[in-house]
Amino acid sequence: MPATPPNDLPYTICVSDTIDAEVEQTILEGLNAYNDAITGYQDRQVLSVVVRDRDSQRVLGGAMGRTSLGLLFLDLFYLPASLRGLGMGSRILEQFEEEGRRRGCASAVLYTISFQAPEFYERRGWRRFGEIACSPEGTSRVFMSKTLQAAS
């Protein structure tokens, strides 16, 4: 439900459980323009490393994120159970990190959930730098980072 800001300004503030294209575009473009003006950089770029079925080319899983200001962000990473334990996750993560290096990123950051894959990342050189409890009880968000070595 719209709420009127203080002082009877001619604006409303709306809370929603959806994000439409106009909202996303306005916020993203505004924040990007502000960041560009302050830093003088315009290097943000999305990144995905995807595994597809060889015959149908249907997407089965992979990693999504972005690079910006010399930092690689791993936002989402998923593989179906049938592809786990085959080395596929490691290969996807390696390619994701390598592309970050190629783009000039010195560090990488992600968060995962305690029941997902923090140990997977730790075995690949990521380190925990924070943890916040969340629901259900006994679960936490695990924040991780990795220093990326310069590409050879």
UniProtKB/TrEMBL annotation:
Keyword list, A-Z: Transferase
PROSITE patterns for this protein: GNAT (PS51186)
GO molecular function: acyltransferase activity, transferring groups other than amino-acyl groups
Pfam families: Acetyltransf_1
Domain N-acetyltransferase residue range list: 1-149
Identification of the protein by name: GNAT family N-acetyltransferase
Protein's organism: Janthinobacterium violaceinigrum
Taxonomic lineage from the root: Bacteria, Pseudomonadati, Pseudomonadota, Betaproteobacteria, Burkholderiales
